[in-house]
Amino acid sequence: MTKDNILAGCRILIMATDGFEQSELEVPLQRLEDAGAKVEIASIDDDDITGWDEDDWGDEVEVDLKIADVDTDRYDALVLPGGQINP
Predict the structure, then answer these.
(1) 19 part of a folded domain
(2) pLDDT category, 2, cuts 50, 70, 90?
């Protein structure tokens, strides 16, 4: 196993809503994917969510599933990005 795929076969869930801190979702998402993990994003509904970037709204992120539909047995880890608006 190389450093590039150290998380191959791992499934990671990121839970977030509108107002998540942009970097606290995007940086872990990219690094986990770069390490070979399958990452999915869950939110309170299935609409895209918008981050908060310093002092204004940031980028939208596609949501894969609703939190209510999450089967926790399918995931190896959970990421909860911070943010002042993200509950």
Answers:
(1) yes
(2) low
71: CATH:
3.40.50.880
Tokens of residue 60, six digits: 């939208």
User: What sections of the chain are H helices per DSSP?
Assistant: 22-34
The domain of 59 spans: 3-79
Contact 30, 9 (CB under 8 A): no
**Helix residue ranges, H only, 2-68:** 22-34
Q: What is the pTM of this model?
A: 0.92
The residue ranges of DSSP E strands in the chain, in sequence order, are 11-15, 38-43, 49-53, 56-61, 65-66, 77-79
